[in-house]
Amino acid sequence: MNIRTLNTFAILRIIFLLLLAAVAESYMMGENRYWNKGRGYSGFGYATSEGILIDNPTDTLKYEYYKLGEASESLKLHFRTRNLHGSPSKKYPYYTGKRLMAKIGNPHWGFFLTGSQDTVIITAKGTEKLTALETMAALELTIYELSKKLKDQITLSEGLNPYDGDNQWDISVDAGLMHIRGGDRNMPMIYETEFDGEVTGFGFLTGWGGKLLVSDIDLQLPNLRFSDFEGFDTDSYNAYLSESEDDMEGYWSLFDRDIEESLIKLGGDYRFACIKDGDNYVFLYLEGAGVNSSKWLPGQPKIILTPSPFSDIFEVEWIDAMKESMDSDIKAQRGEGDTLLIQFPYQNSKIRLRRVSPSTTATSATGASTSKASSEAASSETSATA
User: Fold this and answer.
1) Distance from C-alpha of 173 to C-alpha of 151, rounded to nearest angstrom
2) What is the pLDDT of residue 132?
3) Which site in 66, 140, 247, 358 is 20 to 30 Å from 233, CA atoms measured?
4) DSSP string over 77-109
5) What percentage of residues in the chain have a pLDDT greater than 90?
6) Are 12 and 145 in contact (CB under 8 A)?
7) How far is CA 204 from its chain centroid?
8) Percent of residues in the chain assigned helix, strand, coil, to nearest 5
9) If you count DSSP H runs as helices and E runs as strands, how many of each does the chain have, helices first?
10) Could you write out the DSSP letters of every residue in 29-73?
11) Which residues fall within 8 angstroms of residue 102, CB to CB, at 6 or more apart?
């Protein structure tokens, strides 16, 4: 059975699902949810020191699949891709079933989510977009929703590397919706669709003649101890934190900040309780929200720190005032005097948190007051509200 064209929907569905069924059990893994050059890519079939390298000299799909230990109603997945066979001026060899060599330009590559009721496959290839004035390099994305037998296509000429450059991607599933964000620097929303049922796994693929490198994979599942927290018992947390010997666990508040307000505004003078969860640290919101304050309840995660290969430096997921995830190369580093520096490189901004005693009230950070941040953020259309 030949799948030389990705527009043959029924064939793509049958072959893809048969392949997944054949190897799914081979790729069940444990609790490691973050892979990079320092931590390695152990457990992936095409792992190298630089990432997952999927080199496909055949005339069928080739892919890497990660099966979740348990199906999940929600998921956040971040990763980087580099299309190594993406030069627009080259054609790349592959071999047919009869071992005859053929060549192809701009071979497909992609990624996918599998689910209990749905499977969504996104394929990409470099192309050109014609306008009235010019021809622009572009990335063509084709989205296949297999259970619904739906197919959609979008062509993006800005914000993405269309051929052989790096791109980063955020895939999220929550409340029955799947969101795809991507870009070479910033990651605007690209596509939204319904996703029925629970997520069971994810993966990456190349078409015939393709060669794809996937790196810096960050998988977040809703299994944090406090992700479904519906209340906050101050006495219980005080008792727990008073016994903790971890110098990160405790109460933290904003200390100072250096903000480029045309790019980002703080949504309040926040105060947090930091709790360790596995290898990560979760900063739970306590008080201080000035923007969207009615939606922020004590005990909800606001900041998630994931260890990096370097001591006292963390990758950061920051949940902004509107409860959208911000994680584009945000870093945190321990400082002197029980402080934590968080840097937002794309917004040219940084803040410092300071560890405080349980009885300390929320400390107003130097710089703009909470009321200024709130009123300006509400009227701003160009800056994020953290």
Assistant:
1) 19
2) 64
3) 247
4) EEEEEEETT--TT--EEEE-TTS-EEEESS--E
5) 36
6) no
7) 14
8) 10, 45, 40
9) 3, 26
10) --S--EEBTTTB-TT-TTB-SSSEEEE--SSS-EEEEEEEEEEES
11) 59, 93, 94, 95, 96, 209
Phi then psi for residue 28, to 5 deg, are: -75, 130
Q: Which helix (H) or strand (E) holds 139?
A: strand 135-145
Give the number of other Cβ atoms within 10 Å of residue 78's Cβ: 22
Residues 314-343: tens digit of each pLDDT? 999 999 888 888 877 899 999 887 999 999
Task: Determine whether 147 is exposed, middle or buried from the number of CB atoms within 10 Å of its CB (0-12, 13-18, 19+).
Answer: middle
**Tokens, residue 61:** 């799909």
Nearest CA to 252 out of 293, 302, 295 is that of 302
Sequence-ordered alpha helix ranges (H) in the chain: 9-23, 234-243, 370-379
- Cα separation, 159 vs 165, in Å, equals 12
Give the angle 361-323-31 at the CA atoms, nearest 5°.
Answer: 95
Q: Residue 300 in 3-state DSSP?
A: coil
pLDDT for residue 175 is more than 60? yes
Q: What CA–CA distances, in Å, run from 365 to 277, 339, 352? A: 27, 13, 9
CA 209 – CA 61 distance, rounded (Å): 10
Buried-state track 254-291, b at ≥16 Cβ within 10 A, e below 16: bbebebebeebbbbbbbbbbbbeeeebbbbbbbebbbb
Residue type, 136: M
Strands 384-385 and 264-265 come out as parallel
User: pLDDT confidence of 25, banded at 50, 70, 90?
Assistant: very low
The CB-side HSE value for 23 (13 A sphere, CA atoms) comes to 14
Q: How far apart are CA 87 and CA 103, in angstroms?
A: 13
CA 55 from centroid of its chain's CA atoms: 24
- 250-258 and 92-95 strand pairing: unpaired
